[in-house]
Amino acid sequence: MASLQLLGFGSNGWGALLLVATLMTLAVTATALAIGAVLGAIIAFAKLSGSLVLKTLGNIYTTVFRGVPELLIIYLIYFGGSSAVTSIGKWLGYEGFLGLPSFAAGALAVGIISGAYQAEVFRGAYLAISKGELEAASAIGMHRGLRLRRIIIPQVFRFAIPGLGNVWQLSLKDSALISVTGLAELMRTSQVAAGSTRQYFLFFIAGGILYLVLTSLSDRIFNKAERRANRSMPAATIGQA
Question: Is 153 inside a domain boundary?
């Protein structure tokens, strides 16, 4: 009974804080995925380009940020970024330590990691597009912008959805590492609740269940998006030009 009261939503319960922390986890993961999508698209373009320099830079990015431990990247962004901001502040005449906001630093770090994986997802999705379809589009006079809007983007999105679902799950789990910055996301709140009440098993199990709920719902959403994209693709034909 005491354990249920601790998980309740009253003045003595942690339930409300855990739900708020769950929303914070979703917010930082969604922000990181958006950052990663922009970076991933840029890196995928570089790796698909005919430029040796761009390909090399793209390969370096994906190799480094897929190979270096996620926690190390978070430390570098948060503490290294805070040191850089403090140095700039001193140069501008401000005395004292200036730290990066935990949310911004965490989302940026996870977004950079996510971008390395999304780059490979986008690159693979582009390579999966039928070359005959692109050649047919050029043959009927589609200019590059129209091909991009009518064929490439819809097809890339269609083929990328399963991979993006995996990247989302990866980013969702990586968000737990942001707890080292002090951000009150799900993992951090579970740790604080467990330490405050000495009910370690209760709150870590509760946190694990909430993570499983998030991943299960995410799976359903991405699966539904994939089915919808596959149903709608026949309408996105070249003849619509």
Answer: yes
More confident residue, 6 or 68: 68
Whether 241 maps to a domain, the answer reads no
Instruction: Over range 216-228, report the average pLDDT.
Output: 91
Residue 22 near residue 190 (C-beta atoms within 8 A): no
Q: How far apart are CA 104 and CA 108, in angstroms?
A: 6
For residue 183, what are the domain limits? 1-231
Is 79 among the domain residues? Answer: yes
Residue 62 tokens read as 């994906």
Tell me the whole-structure pTM to 2 decimals.
0.84
**How many folded domains does the chain comprise?**
1
Q: Using alpha carbons, list the distances in angstroms from residue 113 to 35, 81, 101, 179.
A: 10, 16, 18, 16
**149 φψ region: left (φ > 0), alpha (ψ -120 to 50), beta (else):** alpha
